[in-house]
Write a structure and sequence with these properties.
This protein is of the alpha/beta class. It has a five-stranded mixed β-sheet with strand order 2-1-3-4-5, with helices on both faces. 42% of the residues lie in helices and 17% in strands. The two termini are 28 Å apart. α1 runs parallel beside α6.
């Protein structure tokens, strides 16, 4: 998660929101890393999690069983679904989307459907763990908002 935080902080320097994600294989090796590119690519589907799943699949194949997706923020339904379809075994995230929404005064627009709900509805739940370095992840959004004012 510390590497994801570093990537997220770097993303803000390029004008992107502080979202970052990593895919790690069962041996603990980073297979792929990505940040949001929604501003630079002018494409609202360029979320870090979707991109990192895409890159991991290109690197090791379409089945990411045994891999862990680390992400600075709870994945939205689109991001969760991309990881679920690729059979990622575990998602570890920092802060919740509700916390980001509150910290940005609603400026960060996301569907705030908790990942735990999407996970249960999947009928094949994966290992989902949140709150890892949550305060540090949220702080990036608070800093970005303060710098914008």
């Amino acid at each position: 998660m510390e590497l994801a935080l570093t990537l997220a902080a770097q993303a803000t320097q390029g004008g992107e929101p502080p979202f970052a994600a990593l895919t790690v294989d069962p041996n603990g090796d980073v297979v792929a890393r990505a940040t949001d590119e929604v501003v630079g690519k002018a494409d609202m589907t360029r979320h870090a999690e979707v991109t990192v799943v895409r890159l991991a699949c290109q690197a090791v194949g379409p089945d990411l069983t045994g891999c862990t997706l680390y992400t600075t923020v709870e994945p939205c339904p689109m991001c969760f679904t991309s990881a679920w379809l690729a059979k990622v075994s575990r998602i570890v995230f920092g802060c919740t989307m509700d916390a980001v929404h509150a910290a940005t005064g609603g400026q960060q627009r996301e569907l705030r459907i908790p990942a735990r709900i999407v996970n249960v509805q999947s009928a094949e739940p994966l290992d989902l763990r949140g709150g890892v370095l949550a305060e540090a992840c949220l702080e990036l959004f608070q800093e970005q908002r303060a710098n914008a004012q």
